[in-house]
Specification:
Elements lengths: L3 E4 L2 E4 L4 E7 L8 E7 L6 E6 L6 E3 L7 E6 L4 E6 L8 E8 L12 E2 L3 E6 L1
Parallel strand pairs: 2-11
Antiparallel strand pairs: 1-3, 3-8, 4-5, 4-9, 5-6, 7-8, 9-10, 9-11
């Protein structure tokens, strides 16, 4: 079992930055691929960024490429999402997800999910 707890959400002005963190429980964090998804009101949950178990492979949604960076610290059982140059359309609840897999999936089929953290970008 893996428990995920997100933090770092909040209100930020357009063009600003925010860093989300996701702390994972368990001793096998380094065996999990991790991802961030987001869900805006009335919309489906969408993939934002993903990183494989070692951190050597990263994927991004086209809408955030060049602005967001996903990283992980396996010693701290934590994955991060650095959000720069944020836009109002980035407003959503952001979820951390974990999957015991060698690859990074862009589908919301992960085994474990956090409770989500709200990010609101004002124009």
């Amino acid at each position: 079992q893996v428990q995920l707890v997100e933090s770092g959400g909040g209100l930020v002005q357009a063009g600003g930055s925010l860093r989300l963190s996701c702390a994972a429980s368990g001793r096998t964090f380094s065996a999990y691929s991790m991802a961030w998804f987001r869900q805006a009101p009335g919309k489906e949950r969408e993939f934002v960024a993903g990183i494989n178990y070692s951190g050597g492979i990263r994927y991004y949604a086209d809408s955030v490429k060049g602005r967001f960076t996903i990283s992980r610290d396996n010693a701290k059982n934590t994955v991060y999402l650095q959000m720069n140059s944020v836009k109002p359309e980035d407003t959503a609840v952001y979820y951390c997800a974990a999957d015991r897999a060698w690859t990074v999936s862009k589908s919301p089929t992960y085994d474990y999910w956090g409770q989500g953290t709200q990010v609101t970008v004002s124009s």
